[in-house]
Amino acid sequence: MTDELLNVSDLNQFVYCPRRYWYLRFFDTQGRNYERTEGQLMHDSQSTRGGWLNELYLEDEDLGLKGKIDVLELNGKPIPIERKRAQSGDYYKSDELQLAGYCLLLEAHLNEPVREGAIYLYETDQRMHIRITDELREAVRERIAAMRAMDADEVPPITENPRKCEGCSTRSYCMPQETLILEPDRVPSEEWEAEL
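User: That's the sequence. What structure does it adopt?
Assistant: Structure tokens below.
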């Protein structure tokens, strides 16, 4: 499995919770939850305007990545845009990493630097521009290496933040609360101790 191309969207999954990504990668347990279903509907119903290219699929063997850029703005320098739900009006650091992965794919495709991307929050109609720094590029490469190093026989620890588990589509497979009740020596944080 070391030569497989990883999905850029899985960078986000991995940063959110390596255990979640482990279930998705080795056991194909994506499941359906409200956020995934609504997100797919929003992608399917997105508007098309001049100067935009919708859902550009790219892959690069040197990076080890593949993925579909939600929207590529073509006015001036190309700007990849990642669409997110985000009722809160904010995005997560893992979203920045995912966007950086798409920018690296686009760089490889165009053979020129892509120094900016954008995250569009469709629930609040906000667009935030993100500089693609050397630190973000390195973080993408580090996560790819960590994802490739995962082994089907080694389950990652449960996330320290129990709130991440609440809406997770792999919860019924991961069973974090049940696991920690049966194995109290594996409780990862005080937040989990309060939950149990």
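The first helix runs from residue 8 to 16.
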